[in-house]
UniProtKB/TrEMBL annotation:
Source organism of the structure: Kordiimonas lacus
Keyword Transcription regulation: no
Annotated signal sequence range: none
Protein name in the entry: TIGR00341 family protein
One Pfam entry name: DUF389
UniProt keyword Transmembrane, yes or no: yes
Keywords tagged on the record: Membrane, Transmembrane, Transmembrane helix
Membrane-spanning ranges: 107-125, 131-151, 163-185, 200-220, 227-247, 259-282, 294-317
Domain of life: Bacteria
PANTHER family for the chain: AT15442P-RELATED
Amino acid sequence: MPLKMLQVTVPVAAEAHVKKIAASNSVVSCERLAELDGDHVQYVLLTRAGERQKVIDDIQKLLATSSRARINIMPVEATLPDVEAREAGDTREELMIKMRQGAHLDSGYLVLTLLSTIVALIGMVQDNVAVVIGAMVIAPLLGPNLAFAFGTSLGDKKLMSDAFTTAFTGMSVAIAMAAIVGMIWGELPESQELLGRTEVGLGGMALAAASGIAGVLSLTSGLSMTLVGVMVAVALLPPAATLGFMLGIKQWQLANGALLLLIVNVVCVNLAGLLVFFAKGIRPRLWFERRMATPYILSGMAVWSLLLLLLIFVIGATPS
């Protein structure tokens, strides 16, 4: 969303700093609301996307002056007279809230993963593309993958750990559920949708990379995640479900193909996400935090890139 309102509570002694920050960053408006009990005052700043991160970073330096100091970020649907603000985007702090939600592992996430796996298997076994797409809408696989890339770009070890645990658990649940269905089914169905997920090529890599790039661009621009969620789920859930199903019916060679496709997609999505976060300038606020995050960023790029090159070599050496 292009315009957002910052509701700022600071000590009265910091009023001049708030006004200076607003003036130096050319915010749309800066209005004093009221003086509060305990020598505090509230201001509201109407900000555009391009200036919002700098304003928040500067005001955060004032938060340490009082335990009551606070910044509330609120959406603005419209304002009159109209303000030209074409650029849309979320700040680092807003993205962090979304990423923590995406990396959160709870019963709801597990239930959605189970349901989407069952629906995806039904669609693939029946060669019903519409049903497979319906499963992709359910699948909550976008969050943990992008959260891991986001945590890497900030050097946030806890977020990276939570995201990895959630992503690994989700994949494991999908594979286990599909394996159970495969054991019950007992034979290989004649399904192009299913067999198509046992082969991997450069086209599959391009799909996963495009999904990761689209996901991060949508996220950082504050746009709806629905369509992007479908794209990433298409890249991740079907090969995971296919892998489990092939293991369940003991088709080891086809299972290897599905596993290779799943690994390729995970690597491409994470590498693309990390590169876009880096290109968009997502960094920690403090200089020493940025310095500590640099090894994580460089290591992440190096590891994902090397894995991708290794996978390209394996795919090229695998007989078709």
